[in-house]
Amino acid sequence: MSSSSLYTRAKSLFPGGVNSPVRFYPPYPKFMSRGEGSKLIGEDGNEYIDYCLAFGPMILGHSRKEVVEAIREQAGKATSLGTPGRLEVELGERIRSAIPSMEMIRFTNSGTEATMHAIRLARFFTGRPLILKIEGGFHGSHDYALESVPYTGPIDPSQRTTIEVPYNDANALNAAFQKYGRNIAAFILEPVLGNVGVVAPQPGYLQEARKITEEYGSLLIFDEVITGFRSSYGAYQNIVEVKPDLTTLGKIVGGGLPVGVFGGREDIMENVSPSGKFYQQGTFSGNPLSMAGGIAALDVLKGLDYSLPTSFAKQIAEAARLAFFKAGVEVKVNVSGTMLTVFFNHNDVVDSKTASTSNSELFSKYFNGLLENGIFIAGSQMEASFLSFAHSKGDVGKTIEVIKSVAEKIGN
Ligand SMILES: Cc1ncc(COP(=O)(O)O)c(C=O)c1O
Questions:
Q1: Which of 105, 235, 240, 246 could serve as 263's disulfide partner, Cβ 3.0–4.6 Å?
Q2: Residues 123 and 221 in one domain
Q3: Centre of ligand 1 from the C-alpha of residue 138, in Å
Q4: Does residue 50 sit in the same domain as residue 101?
């Protein structure tokens, strides 16, 4: 069945024809039917090298044997128990030993739930109303993270409000804390921005975030929904050696099934019901399928060397820089571990504001050029591309050739 006829049906069912807005790109998105290793196979039978990877989770590629077998085996035993189960303990222990700051955790079903409850918990624990976040930082679709105002505006601290500061700007961070510090329950941030495209922290920025939150008695929450297990076995906090009070995870830790996690300091997490008075629940939380998928994925990941997908990300980034330079098109390519974004921009992209000055028309030409030639990335300039352990040297070589020819076309 063609994507266009499926889209016609989908449009009458789902707003914009999709069940998550980031899946849409004009005129209508390709409907995919299968994933195999580094490839997606469309409803029309076409094959694409996949750098979207379901927006991050599929770090082992699609249909990784060990994960599929674990899910299949578990499906025959139970898909939901509504009772505690061994697999929750086993995945939880793996997470805690890989990310020691997560002394106690709770599973949810999505990253959105994880950040929502982490934010609620920070307000409960500190008794303070304000949440500070990063401009353009994304923590899922709930009001606590979507409704934010600039820290420079007038804010009534009696309102439970989310305020924001630009990323990578220690001065703005200090100014926001000077103004509102004693009312700030938590500062939540993705340690590497992934949702304006990839932007890595400048040296010292995350350390500054740790220092100032401690000074004002606010909690530091690292949203590692994307970065958890993405560029090393563990979280980005391990790489920079900054210990947040709370961490949120999702994506990779479910092995490709729905999952979320929030966790951190035991004295904070002990407040969560039923051990404390902070109420939080979920019918499907810790469901055995996601747990089985997560355990299998982490066990495979533990034995793998991240340097290969990391070097592939670097190779693609360098090739894109060179190809667009030769074609006379200005780009900035940001890479962090196994994540990258080609920004059509002459400015260095260091935060949301600089990312938003990118040329979306050129991006759209790039995206469509890749797609026509069998390469699939997320359909927005403000997204990351991801490498997986399933990508081969051959995939990367083909991708680089396609980028060269697309760059030439755009440059003409
Ligand atoms: C950093 C970050 N936090 C939270 C979320 C929300 O996770 P989910 O889509 O699983 O609700 C996302 C989703 O992309 C994310 O990138």
A1: 105
A2: yes
A3: 7
A4: no
The pLDDT score that the predictor gives to residue 135 is 96
- For the Cβ of 227 lying below 6 angstroms from any atom of ligand 1, the answer is no
Residue 228 CB–ligand 1 contact under 6 Å = no
CA distance 111 to 108: 8
244, 271, 302 - which closes a domain: 302
Let me know whether 147 and 189 are in one domain: yes
Q: How many angstroms does the Cα of residue 55 sit away from the middle of ligand 1?
A: 9
In a domain, 4, yes or no: no
Give the residue, by CA position, lying nearest to ligand 1 atom 16.
226
Do residues 362 and 146 touch, judged by C-beta distance below 8 A? no
CA distances from 156 to 46, 147, 165, 187 (A): 54, 15, 17, 18
pLDDT of residue 157 exceeding 80, the answer is: no
Angle at which helices 170-180 and 205-216 cross, to 10°: 10
Burial label, 102 (beta-carbon count in 10 A; 0-12, 13-18, 19+): buried
For 256-281, the pLDDT digits (tens) are 999 999 999 999 999 999 999 999 99
Predicted confidence (pLDDT) per residue in 37-57, tens digit: 999 999 989 999 999 999 999
The Cα 305–Cα 350 span in angstroms is 29
CA of 348 to the centre of ligand 1 (A): 25
Residue 5 lies in a domain: no
H or E segment to which residue 375 belongs: strand 375-376
Encoded tokens for 214: 């401690």
288 with 310, same domain: the answer is: no
If you write DSSP's letter for every residue of 52-115 in order, what string do you get? SGGGTT-TT-BT-HHHHHHHHHHHTT-S--SS--HHHHHHHHHHHHHSTT-SEEEEESSHHHHH
Atom of ligand 1 nearest to the CA of 137: 1
Measured by CA distance, the residue closest to atom 13 of ligand 1 is 140
Please indicate, yes or no, whether residues 243 and 289 belong to a single structural domain of this protein: yes
Residue 26 lies in a domain: no
Identify the pLDDT of residue 182.
96
Assess whether the C-beta atom of 383 lies below 6 angstroms from ligand 1: no
Domain with 332, as residue range(s), is: 31-63+305-411
Domains held by the chain: number? 2
Domain at 266, CATH number: 3.40.640.10
Q: Is 231 helix (H, G, I), strand (E, B) or coil?
A: coil
> Alpha-carbon dihedral of residues 121, 129, 204, 269, nearest 10 degrees?
-10
Confirm or reject: Cβ of 110 under 6 Å from ligand 1. yes
